[in-house]
Amino acid sequence: MNASLERISSEIRDIQDFPKQGIVFKDITPVLANGQLFRLAVNTLSDRHHAHNLDRVLGIDARGFIFAGAVAYKLGIGFVPVRKKGKLPYKTNSITYDLEYGRETLEIHQDALRPGHKVLIVDDLLATGGTAAAAAELVTKLGAEVVELAFLIELEFLNGRRNLRNYKIFSALKY
Ligand code: AMP
């Protein structure tokens, strides 16, 4: 791991049993609160890409928005939100998937992407991969192409890549 990533890693806080018993939550708020580290994190996600190879950056509700918005701004390309059910005002496509406990529904605006659009999906953390796989399916159902899924953090022991076999995946920090 390079020195920049080590600095980010050292500021990620483990919160035991949040939001449920048995979960170790990776709290990124200390990274966000540090301007240098936030910039390093955004640069790590965006520097591997060029605006001419992408049409949109897609962020996943809610922490994904923090990074995806900044990556889109940095690359100078448009941002698309994927949101939890009932938050997007226009016509939507939706997908419901299983979480470790319970179910979740994600939505995208039907006109958010066009066939052939090249899309970078950004989220803060890859756990089981269910959320990312659902977001990727919303993209492909609109005829667009997932160029990469990029995460600040990957929890490798949950094997989220198993749910994302068809896609290119980047993660900056692996635990
Ligand atoms: P998953 O669908 O299991 O890959 O879960 C991914 C989503 O849940 C991401 O959007 C994360 O923000 C959040 N998440 C899951 N597990 C954790 C964790 N241990 N710490 C922080 N966020 C998590």
List keywords for this structure.
175 residues, alpha/beta, Rossmann fold, 5 helices, 29% helix, binds adenosine monophosphate
Please give a structural write-up.
There is one protein chain. The protein has one domain: Rossmann fold (3-Layer(aba) Sandwich), CATH 3.40.50. 29% of the residues lie in helices and 34% in strands. The chain is built from five helices and nine strands, in the order αββααβαββββαββ. The protein has helices at 3-11, 29-32, 35-46, 63-75, 130-141, and strands at residues 13-16, 24-27, 56-60, 78-84, 92-98, 103-109, 118-126, 145-154, 169-174. The longest helix has 13 residues, at 63-75. It is globular, with a radius of gyration of 16 Å. The relative contact order is 0.16. The mean pLDDT is 97. Adenosine monophosphate binds at residues 23-26, 60, 63, 123-132, 160. Adenosine monophosphate (AMP) is lined by residues 23-26, 60, 63, 123-132, 160.
